[in-house]
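Researcher: I'd like a structural prediction for the single chain below. Treat it as a standalone chain; there are no partners to consider.
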Amino acid sequence: MAQVHFSSNQRRLTGGVAQVEVDAATVRELLRKLEEMFPGIGAHLDRTSATAVAIDGDIIPDPMYEAVPADAEVHFITPLAGG
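Model: Treating it as a single chain, here is the predicted structure.
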């Protein structure tokens, strides 16, 4: 199963859970399963223009149909604001 890691900001939506294991073939399926586990997180993470997806350290430009290897580490990277 893939290990999904959540940032401290994303943990607000997971009840403080920092990491979960999910069995999913694609990023889209992974998002659906995360939404089942943590209602509301799907809308937060599925902002494809704003949230990047990294699989095993590689940022995926168009991630929805990207395969998720069974032993992958997945991170959803939210944009940072600066000024």
